[in-house]
Amino acid sequence: MRRFPLDSVINGRPLILGHRGSPNELAENTIASFLRALEEGADGVELDVRQSGDGRLVVFHDDALQTGEVLREHSFDEISEIAAAQNVVVHSLEDVLRELAGKGYLNIELKELDTTAKAADLALALMPAGSYVFSSFLPSVVRECRRLAPDVPAIYITDSCRDPERVLHLMASSDASGIGIWHQALTPAHAKLCATRDIPIFVWTVNDPAEAQRLASLGVAGIITDEPAILTALWKMP
Questions:
Q1: How many domains does the chain have?
Q2: Half-sphere exposure of 107 toward its Cβ, with a 13 Å CA cutoff?
Q3: What is the pLDDT of residues 81-111, one digit of tens each?
Q4: CB 79: neighbour CB atoms within 10 A?
């Protein structure tokens, strides 16, 4: 089995994934925003996962609400109530997966090691095979994802490629299926190095059409964007 089943198979173009949905249209990391990205033509979305104090997995980027309440110090119901008072919607990962299953490709970014087993269990139970990937900045999370769900790709994320050999070492030690990298850090040399080793590349966060075309010419497997409608128009996607 290939380490990553969807690289270079979407009509010769990269996957387009909405960054936390379509955040310039609707609130990030919400079901409404994810669905908007899909309506705008994105192949799928990227989302963030943390954990509440009572062990529920929460789709939220930061470890605390804007008013300072730390997610791990409150139950999911408490977080939801506090957030609602701020006109913020917080979803459980289970609810998001149930809503999006079969509708698009998901990049599930795990922020914390102890979320891995629960996230893997939920995704394996609720998502169609081949429709999602795990990702993390933490090699330990990538390694655990690969152990728990060996048939599911897991991407190691980095914001720098200044030391490509170290990045490749971290990928190898965590059994990563590919790399996620900040788009401005990706050079032709880095892209060529990954291509020679059959390493798919995801880039984030790309909102400029010219930059998206540059990255596509380098052979990236996926582009994560705040502007799904603008980037999907480049390839006249339905």
A1: 1
A2: 32
A3: 999 999 999 999 999 999 999 999 999 999 9
A4: 27
